[in-house]
């Protein structure tokens, strides 16, 4: 019975993978076939790159059902557009070998493709795609297809056909693979929609993209051997400005249109088919043009993320993720200086009997208590409120645009929640804590500095402690 359930579950996974891959690969094949000149290789063939990207991005599709789906889609697309059975079979095998060899070497070298956007992973991946997957696919194609009757490949042009297939695959991978790998996940899109903020879109933000479009237009107007370099500076500018997915879309736009423009230029001069080395050179150049801004974008994005992480660690308490004392004073005094009319409150909070708790349960429990307390407070604040840890168990709040009654309500709510919300320990027992709170309110931001206000709130906190703890005192 259990074996039957496992088999049924596996079949469901493979059936799902089959239909997903069939649909995706078939659409990509038909797009590629639409760009195929009569009896010649397709100018763009996104199917192989899309198949590999889907297997890397969604490993649950990489099963027998997924591979059968890819085989079915390749065969059907070729057969329905006029190819014979034998031609379709060897073309399909050539396409599949690209993905098979790439996945083999990714696993052989233990490349963590989930982190393609960190370190040198991206470069390693494209090294494998270009010099393993694409190379093996091209080699298999030229060793088999010329031997078939009425083939569009001939033994006389073996090296030319090899170069065209290989470089064509390289361009397809550099255009379509990053686009699929970098596409935002559903939860990332949901997060963006739920947490979107009203921001002014400054004109300068769109300048890099506009310059890329202008360069591509110039490429189509003044086509020629040097046209490939027209968008380079604009692409570098864009790579330093935008996130990776945006950059992959810009890159695909540039490469496809530049590819079309230069192909039309050489076709008009009747040299594109007569001298195929020009075509091979064009594709290698486009591959290098696309690779450079992607690598630069990843380096820039990683540098920015690292800077944000270091800045966050420098300004926040590592245990409770609240602001540290230095950052709280810096930001609080800046806001006091420029908030001319807003009312605000300073609230001091101190966990009761924290030293006794540390001595009885140990410092590791004390650390968890601090984290537990900080999370309760954080859940009851607005985004603009400042929250910092300024001592061992002492915390401070700076609330903006609040009246004294509102500040007291917030403080009482926090005190009540801390008292009623237990911290669950590893042995299953519950630990309850309480907090004492002191408040001061100020109508005129510039009348006193932040340290004096904290001192007043601290005196109110001392009164709360003196009166028996677990209460809120508003400074008179």
UniProtKB/TrEMBL annotation:
Cross-referenced CDD domains = GGDEF
Q: Which enzyme type, at the first EC level?
A: transferase
Localization annotation: Cell membrane
Q: Which reaction does it catalyse?
A: 2 GTP = 3',3'-c-di-GMP + 2 diphosphate
In short, the EC number is: 2.7.7.65
Q: Its principal location?
A: membrane
Keyword DNA-binding appears in the UniProt entry: no
**What SMART domains does the database record attribute to this sequence?**
GGDEF
Under the heading PANTHER family, the entry gives:
DIGUANYLATE CYCLASE DGCM-RELATED (PTHR45138:SF9), REGULATORY COMPONENTS OF SENSORY TRANSDUCTION SYSTEM (PTHR45138)
Q: What is this protein called?
A: diguanylate cyclase
Where does this protein come from, organism-wise? Answer: Acinetobacter pecorum
